[in-house]
Amino acid sequence: MNLPFYIARRYLFSKKSHNAIHIISMVSVCGVVVATIALVCALSVYNGFNDLVASLFSNFDPELKVTPRKGKVFDPNAAEIRALKEMPGIDCFSEVLQDNALVRYGDRQGVAVLKGVDERYERLTRIDSILIDGTFRLKDEIVSYANLGIGMAFSLGINAGFMSPLEIYAPKRNESVNMANPASSFNLEYAYIGSVFRTDQQVYDDSYVIVPLSLARSLFDYDKEISAIELKVKEGENVGAVKEEVRRILGDRYIVRDRFEQQEASFKMMQVEKWMTFLILTFILVIALFNVVGSLSMLMIEKQEDVKTLRNMGADDRLIRRIFLLEGWMISGIGALAGIVIGVLLCLLQQTFGFIKLGESSGAFIINAYPVRVVPMDILAVFVTVLAIGFLAAWYPVRYLCDKTEIGD
Questions:
Q1: Which of 37, 131, 158, 313 is the most buried (most CB within 10 A)?
Q2: What are the backbone angles phi and psi of residue 209, rounded to the nearest 5°?
Q3: Dihedrals φ, ψ of 73, to 5°?
Q4: DSSP conformation class of 369
Q5: Using an 8 Å Cβ cutoff, are 114 and 100 in contact?
Q6: Cα 51 to chain center, whole Å?
């Protein structure tokens, strides 16, 4: 067994002549344990919320979305688009035309994001899983249907199955406004209410209206142009690899985004919050490890006689310093391991049983209990952080304080 490690272990776990030193060492270990548990649990909760938000967006956002780099629309019959349709990794290909429009029902009106989609859109997303009223449909032999977010439906005072159609207005392209008769400067289309959906995301619930692609083209004065292509990757295929292949085929004229890039602002904000919390808890860990300085300082004073004995037996200054440095490392290392084990165990229990609730009443939030997900890389980051700070906390008293005692002489 390594001699410095053996002596350091004896100092940490054996009874000491001054019980106060033993208590301070145990307090140091407990402080590291508590701070490590807090780090593990906080990062895991943020991972859980990140997964929750991703699942909410996945019901509406496609796995991949292609948009033009310049301009609002492009020709879906271009050669590179035809090549994209023949890609083996693509399971579903849907054309989209999206723009702002004025919607009106009775005496209520509002500005909506009108999303025109083709008949393949229902296969592309899990739209049926977020419907709260009606049936998702686009058109039949006679009429077109509009599918509204719950916020938009509430502001217009409508619901699925209403007898009167929704009026949809958009300004005519390439025409100036007729001040004598402003109404003549707008295209008007009608759509009956097919369904109401709820994504629990304000950006969609409060403004989106899904209509047939043919209605959107007629309203916005387009013949065949589209504003985006939404793609679903075949099951078992790697989304990242397919995205890179799509980029290679389309070239620089198009932008290809996955689900995280489509909602980049939301996910970046969550990541910033996660690592800011990590930094705050790390400062708490630094304070907890200040106890190591006091514990090692008192230990070095107490063990002066032992050090003299070791020196007489041929031990040099380097070996003696390593003993006390390992003592400090063991305090932070044991605390880190114990904290990680307890933290992961608590996260798994929360994930399984949901002990900590988000609200007192069930159904008050999207989920009833705090979501958690343990990520191995986060655990590694916590462990490395604790060991690094623990090393610095042990190195200071060993390097500087021992020079002022007889240990370093």
A1: 37
A2: -130, 120
A3: -135, 170
A4: B
A5: yes
A6: 6
CA distance 231 to 89: 10
Residue with tokens 């400067």: 185
| Relative orientation angle of helices 317-353 and 376-399, to the nearest 10 degrees | 150
The tokens of 2 are what?
Answer: 């390594």
- Measured CA to CA, the distance from residue 92 to residue 404 in angstroms comes to 74
User: Which two three-digit tokens encode residue 288?
Assistant: 């907890």
Which residues does residue 208 pair with via DSSP β-bridges, in sequence order? 113
Listed residue (76, 128, 120, 114) closest to 231, CA to CA: 120
The residues pairing with 211 across neighbouring beta strands, listed in sequence order, are 116
What's the rounded Cα separation, in Å, for the pair 158 and 167? 12
Taking only the tens place, the pLDDT of each residue in 73-120 is 999 999 999 999 889 889 999 999 999 999 999 999 999 999 999 999
Judge if pTM exceeds 0.85: no
What tens digit of pLDDT does each residue of 25-74 get? 777 788 889 999 999 999 999 999 988 888 777 778 899 999 999 999 99
Q: Cα–Cα distance between 62 and 244 in angstroms, integer?
A: 16
Tokens, residue 27:
């307090």
Please give, one letter per residue, the 3-state secondary structure of 224-241.
Answer: CCECEEEEEECCCCCHHH
